[in-house]
Amino acid sequence: MMPPGAMPGASNDGGALANRVPHDLDAERSTLGSILLDPEVMPDVQNVLGGDRAFYSEKHRVIYRALSAMFEAGDAIDLVTVSEHLRVRGDLEVVGSIGYLVALAEGTTTAAYATHYAGIVRKNASLRQVIAVGHKMVSLASAGLEDAETVLGQAQTALAGLLTGVATGDYRRADEVAADVTAYVAALLAADGTPTGIPSGLADLDAVLHGWQKGAVYVLAARPGMGKTAAALGAAWHAASRGSSVGVFSLEMPDRDLFLRLAATEGRVNLERVRSGRVGGRDIDRLADTIQRISTKSLLFNDVSDLTVTQLRTKARLMMARDGLDLLVVDYLQLLAPEGKRSGGGENRVQEVSAMSRGLKMLARELDIPVLVLSQLSRQVEQRPNKRPMLSDLRESGAVEQDADAVIFIYRDDYYDPNSTEAGIAEFIIAKNRNGPLATVRTQWTGEHTSFRDLARHDAAPHPSHS
């Protein structure tokens, strides 16, 4: 046997083609021999390998499956019991004979290096997976059925999956998790009530959500005209103005129009008067100053329509690599394109939106950033006497509710009743909050500037949610 610091040489079995595929039959044999010598090493080996596909040799995969099944069942593992297990299942001929099992056990002097050999097997399996992904990408690119951006996005997703898969089966002991929890609690205490995430710009919303948290998905939903794009832009600007790098994906509006809306809001200039060319000199100066101020911040705009989640993930990774990325805003979920083909409507559309929602959740976890995604509500809101939204109003997919860490509805009573006693008041209804309470946060809505602001402190406290 070779010492654990050395790499066993590749076997000549399998011909020239096999020698070009990463594998190490000696390491595979030593791994199996270690288990036959001492079955108690099985959990450690399983933790390294994951499954039997890590083995290059088919007969080694068969033997490993048998050893795993017997260990899980609590059966005794020795040469006789393993050969009988294989014989009953018709697999002994695949292995060759009991003599091969004997050779495995006799060729391994100790089980002490089981995880070392298993690590070599796992490394070669990972390299084979990389090669497989490469071949798939070559095939997709050669077929010419997808654009280069889509192929690159699929490649990045597949490779990211391989990186995650290497750690499949890993776990952490309670003492290891406790260290993270201690550090997290210390950070909360040090914050002394201030948001631990990226502040939204609305103090009372932050009092409930504690800011936009890393790895979380926030769904901001409303009927058209309620101001959800204005709210998202306000959150993006508030984060960027305090040093965060914010990516804004607008599938509905060109980046020029989005930038102008933000500049008009922050400059307190009437946007309609700007668009009609009836803005005065003082307003022009404020608008110009605001445009200059916004231009100095790390706001990253992407207004490509017909974007799939895969393409969005590719662009978001590019933003992070080039400029850093602390917060991602997507306007809006239902405008994302399905992967590969056009929507067929009905149940197919529900499945597509569910896949998009799940994809955004995976992106938030992968990049470890908060994702604020806007969503439309169904028309059934308009058919009720009380038109405040409910979770069941989320359009086309219950998965949106399931994947979101928080769901926030915007409701303005004066939208439906011009004579409302709540004129100028907008409610941010937190209908789902995975890590905190439900509440309704009242804010000031200024239609002229399409902006949401904190109410005076005596009227600003969050109220129990209507939903």
Outline the structure in words.
- By secondary structure, the protein is an alpha/beta fold.
- It folds into 2 domains: 152 residues, DNAb Helicase, Chain A (Orthogonal Bundle), CATH 1.10.860; 264 residues, P-loop containing nucleotide triphosphate hydrolases (Rossmann fold), CATH 3.40.50.
- Helix content is 49%, strand content 12%.
- It is built from 19 helices and 9 strands.
- The chain has a 9-stranded mixed beta sheet with strand order 3-2-4-5-1-6-7-8-9, with helices on both faces.
- Strand 7 and strand 8 form a beta hairpin.
- Helix 2 packs parallel to helix 4.
In short:
With 467 residues, the chain is of the alpha/beta class.
Key structural traits:
disordered N terminus; alpha/beta; 19 helices; 467 residues; 2 domains; 9 strands; nine-stranded mixed β-sheet; Rossmann fold; DNAb Helicase, Chain A
